[in-house]
Amino acid sequence: MKVTFTLLIFLFAALTLNAENGHDLWLRAKHTATVNIVCSGKSPTLTIAKQELRQGWQGKANATFVLKKKHNKLIKGDGYRLSSGRIEANTDLGILYGVYDLLRRQQTGEAITEQVENPSYERRILDHWDNLDGTIERGYAGRSIFWHGKDSLAVTEKDKKLWQEYARADASIGINGAVLDNVNASPLVLTTEYLKRVQAIAEVLRPYGIKTYLSVNFASPSVIGGLKTSDPLDPQVKEWWKNKAKEIYKLIPDFGGFLVKANSEGQPGPQNFGRTHADGANTIADAVKPYGGIVMWRAFVYSANDEDRAKQAYNEFMPLDGKFHDNVIIQVKNGPIDFQPREPFSPLFGAMKKTPVMPELQVTQEYLGQAIHLVFLAPMWEEFLKSDTYQEGKGSTVARCTDGSISQQKHTAIAGVANIGLDTNWCGHPFAQANWYAFGRLAWNNQLSSDQIADEWLKLTFKPTPAEDKTKSTVLPIVWNINFLKPVKRMMLESREAAVNYMMPLGLHHLFSANEHYGPGPWWAPKGVRKDWTPPYFHKADTLGIGFDRTEKGSNAVSQYHEPLRSLFNNVNTCPEIYLLWFHHLPWDYQTKGGLTLWDDLCYHYQGGLDQVRSFQKTWDKAKPYVDKERFSMVQKKLRKQCVNAQVWKDACLLYFQQFSRMPIPYNIERPVHNLKDLIENDMKRIR
Ligand code: GCW
């Protein structure tokens, strides 16, 4: 009996050991060969570099490889020069990045020619919206990896191991900063007991080149400092921030700085004291300046007034251009509303001439199916980064307006709102890991294509190769299984457009029910809720038509863009159809470019999105032979749910809008399978 029990435990352990849980991300254990490393320098970062190289080498057995710190004018920041036998860099971190790049190339079969790789942005940061009690705002992958509540501030070995794994994953894709707490910040994070934990996290992250940053609450001086005010121009308040910075830098000498959400969605800010965003940002920036710290001040501001919400950030910040101190960067979300499946770029990019601006992307899929829908975000970010702002004429892409190519900037940065939690696979959905990966890769090189990123990630994350021959000393050359790689990559690359199609095509936006931002609710507008938080504010559907008129005759949001974009968006004939209802309110029988009525076109888009998800299911089922069974079935289940959801989105939006269009759903597409009344009632039950 006892023997059988032990045997069972053994069998169970063996099984779980082999089970693929996704925890290793794109850094999977490999079958490697030995390598002789020549490296004279010594530092914790170099120790990691050497260890990674030894652990991951897939080149010729017994080859010699040189890691060398050497000043080279072509190399910028933590960039590096890579060739088949050596990596050179100006910094130890540059060497570590070079090692990760080399190993990635060895594993994906990408050529290793002599080349210099420099980062697009100086600071490549993940913003964790982690609350101190361990919950995560808009987090869909479990609780926080950093915080477990006020009774668990003591640092455990388990914490440290996880932070180290996190740091390694970040460093492997070039991320060099982490904001450890939610932008809806608790003042408590600046108290000494919490700062001690921040110090411990910083110590684990440091050898991997990751700086820690904190989101701070603007009212901290009064809430935890006991001052009568948090007025940024009050001398005592200034002194308080200075002392706080001093305390932090004593604990964390390389602390990165602060991120601030002020006068936005109920958060306190300088306007509570009759001061401007510049006054607020500068006071805090002055405090960290002696130590080289920065302040990332968010432009995500809008009030419940009559002005088009899409215009407000620009209106608020443009008059302040030139008033910010030189260690302030304005952090701007990619679109003017809020991380929707598709938005045109925010007009604040390419607008401010004297103030650096950094993009804020959302890796966590708040508005894109959360951890259930398979949506690869690189195509969305690529579309954004390549958007031309025309700041200095043609070719002034968002990428170039923010990475220092157009105007000399003291600091450049990019941030992504993390999708990471305590879930074993970190991100909830196996394919959500690709979004973490893509953010890091694009932050490092804002010219990369989504195709390349998807290709790399798939090769690193799955093993789409014939079974490895463990008897051979090397595993090269790698033959990628094209039956897996090609269709699965196509699915990833199409997935964002699919989500746009079944959620909100043709420029529609914010059609979500309630504050969950998951399912459809084009009808959702309960009494007492701010109107700019409700879908009818955004779609403006009535019997005459649908869409938000942002032309010169409407809110005139188009005027915030440079020419020729202003006229292009303003004119319904030249406005790209992907933004049609973002900028125009049009009659239901308006003829779109394909010769359809607007109503029919809308219907075909919703049907098209649903069809795409169904085709993803087929693609994935066919990929079965090439994927471990755990991840295969997890993705399969999630795709089933996504398909059901896409059907709900289609039915909900079409049946709701049909009340206004009073036109039939084209007879050659599928009939709805839900009733509008049921959808609305279920929705109401859910939010109650
Ligand atoms: O979109 C909204 C989110 C909030 C978030 C806010 C912001 C952190 O729904 O949860 O708060 O954006 O970016 O500040």
UniProtKB/TrEMBL annotation:
GO molecular function: alpha-glucuronidase activity; xylan alpha-1,2-glucuronosidase activity
PANTHER family xrefs: ALPHA-GLUCURONIDASE A
Keyword Signal: yes
Keywords linked to the UniProt accession: Hydrolase, Signal
UniProt protein name: Xylan alpha-1,2-glucuronidase
Signal peptide region: 1-19
Domain annotation Glycosyl hydrolase family 67 C-terminal: ranges: 427-668
CC terms in the record's Gene Ontology section: extracellular region
Organism: Prolixibacter bellariivorans
Lineage: Bacteria, Pseudomonadati, Bacteroidota, Bacteroidia, Marinilabiliales
GO biological process assignments: xylan catabolic process
Glycosyl hydrolase family 67 catalytic domain mapped to chain residues: 113-426
Superkingdom as given in the UniProt entry: Bacteria
Transcription regulation recorded as keyword: no
